[in-house]
Amino acid sequence: DENNSADITTITTATNPLHYVTDINSDAIRIAKSTAEKNGIPVPDFQTHQCDLASTLLETLTNKVDILIFNPPYVPTPDVEVGSSGIEASWAGGTNGRIVLDRALPQVAQLLAYPHGVAYVVVVDDNFPEEVARAMDERYGVRVVPWMRRRT
């Protein structure tokens, strides 16, 4: 992985997992393809979509994603840095590091297979993870359980 920040959605079936990678950045898509190839993921099982969040996958993958991994830009920054064309867009999360994350939450909820779909979402304390968990529960009925918390 060459610092690939591409969002990765994986659908697991009994025999062959299908991998869907989304990112708005063409370099991240290129790196994701290279990483998949180096790790022996067959091309038919690996699709990339250059798009905003998972927008191009919503229609076909609603309630079908078993495992979703999302590493959004989560560093608190000035809002103007979010979505810029510079490298800072890969980490710039805006106010409380939540601008991209808050936009993604409805898509995460829509994509997850009910009732057993699982999403692994990277957040830091500056993002107020308890608020994220409460929002997922109250708005979308998705239960959030912290998987790992690093103490500094």
Model description:
The strands form two sheets. This protein has a five-stranded mixed sheet, with helices on one face. It has a two-stranded parallel ribbon with strand order 5-6. Helix 1 links the parallel strand 2 and strand 3 (46-50). By secondary structure, the chain is of the alpha/beta class. The chain has helices at 26-38, 58-61, 99-111, 129-140; strands at residues 7-11, 18-23, 46-50, 67-70, 75-76, 92-94, 118-121.
The counted number of beta strands is 7
Cα end-to-end separation: 25 Å
The level of helicity is: 25-40%
What is the N-to-C succession of helices and strands?
Answer: EEHEHEEEHEH
Rg over C-alpha atoms, rounded to the nearest angstrom: 15 Å
Determine the number of helices (DSSP H or I, runs of at least 4 residues): 4
The backbone outline, from C-alpha atoms, is globular
Mean pLDDT, all residues: 87
Sheet with most strands: 5 strands, mixed
Strand order, largest beta sheet? 3-2-1-4-7
Overall SS class: alpha/beta
Instruction: Identify low-pLDDT runs.
Output: 1-5, 9-14
Strand fraction equals: 15-25%
